[in-house]
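Key result, reporting period 2: structure in, sequence out.
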């Protein structure tokens, strides 16, 4: 039975040795007319305070669905969570009432979405929209909420914040709008911030600035940060560890330097080789052959086998478990040793 909100919310400031957030054997499926889509199949990861986890994968890999499950914003139905736990400071969010989750969502676990223009309301000033966080959640007066909005706009480095607080979203560039979204998401000092493809629509220079801003904000507040991206190139300088997802599963888990130095899964290796490099100017960019799997008709055995240059006969029939390589890293590849050995250091 679902518990009531007030007596089960996790204590603020943490509980003993529990990680800030842990996703445990999470399964999410969607009932569609075409059949059951198993979007997330046994995903587990942890996040500590002050840590940045990058969750990487192509579209349909299950990375955003996992984040939506953490936020509690999946439409249920058609979505269903048949198995798993999402513990926030030890409390399983999946067992809380909707009322309790509303108290956590946005306030203690916040999310930045990829499309700032559609996430912001075009008919209200940005100051009003940032201030809403304080008016609604903290009962602040309009005047005080506007002051807070200016402070936050300063904090996310929007120039001339005092003047621009009365501007509308369309009067800002894409990068500045994303800063406004970030300001809204950190307004209530969340303990966990999830950024879902926060730089996708931005040019490379602005991408780097937004990543730098997120890293700075994280250092200032010690929050846990989950960065969801399809682009391994943008997280190298900010992530502590990376979980690579493919076909609804984690296929490689490792500290960031291990992933870049010596990937242990052919998919990760392919993603790394697809990053444009200045020293290889003029050469064709590597691309992983084939397409991501159809979740309604998953390949047998290892889901990556139709695209994998390391494939052996047993890959077609046997699903690889997540093999532990060392206490901090794992790979869901039967031939992870060969992949490691075949990587130049
Ligand atoms: Fe490739 Fe086989 Fe490893 Fe899958 S298990 S990634 S098909 S080598």
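The corresponding designed sequence is given below.
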């Amino acid at each position: 039975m679902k518990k009531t909100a007030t007596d089960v919310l996790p204590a603020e400031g943490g509980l003993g040795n529990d990680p800030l957030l842990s996703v445990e054997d999470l399964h999410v499926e969607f009932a569609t007319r075409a059949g059951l889509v198993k979007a997330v199949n046994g995903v587990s990861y942890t996040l500590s305070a002050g840590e940045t986890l990058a969750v990487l994968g192509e579209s349909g890999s299950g990375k955003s669905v996992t984040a939506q499950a953490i936020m509690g914003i999946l439409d249920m139905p058609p979505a269903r969570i048949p198995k798993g736990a999402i513990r926030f400071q030890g409390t399983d969010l999946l067992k809380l009432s909707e009322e309790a989750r509303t108290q956590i969502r946005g306030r203690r676990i916040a999310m930045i979405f990829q499309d700032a223009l559609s996430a912001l309301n075009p008919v209200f000033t940005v100051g009003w929209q940032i201030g809403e966080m304080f008016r609604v959640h903290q009962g602040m007066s309009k005047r005080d909420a506007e002051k807070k909005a200016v402070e936050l706009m300063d904090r996310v480095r929007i120039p001339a914040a005092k003047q621009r607080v009365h501007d509308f979203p369309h009067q800002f560039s894409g990068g500045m709008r994303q800063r406004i979204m970030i300001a809204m998401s950190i307004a209530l000092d969340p303990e966990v911030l999830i950024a879902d493809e926060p730089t996708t629509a931005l040019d490379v220079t602005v991408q780097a600035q937004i990543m730098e801003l997120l890293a700075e904000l994280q250092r200032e507040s010690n929050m846990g940060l989950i960065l969801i991206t399809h682009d391994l190139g943008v997280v190298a300088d900010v992530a502590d560890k990376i979980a690579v997802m493919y076909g609804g599963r984690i296929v490689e888990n490792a500290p960031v330097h291990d992933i870049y130095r010596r990937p242990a899964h052919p998919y990760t290796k392919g993603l790394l080789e697809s990053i444009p490099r200045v020293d290889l100017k003029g050469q064709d960019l590597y691309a992983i052959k084939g397409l991501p799997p159809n979740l309604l008709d998953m390949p047998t055995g290892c889901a990556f086998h139709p695209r994998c240059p390391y494939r052996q006969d047993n890959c077609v029939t046997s699903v690889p478990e997540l093999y532990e390589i060392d206490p901090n890293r794992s790979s869901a590849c039967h031939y992870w040793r060969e992949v490691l050995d075949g990587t130049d250091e």
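Confidence is low (pLDDT under 50) at residues 1-7. The chain has eleven helices and twelve strands. This case is discussed further under Risks and Mitigation.
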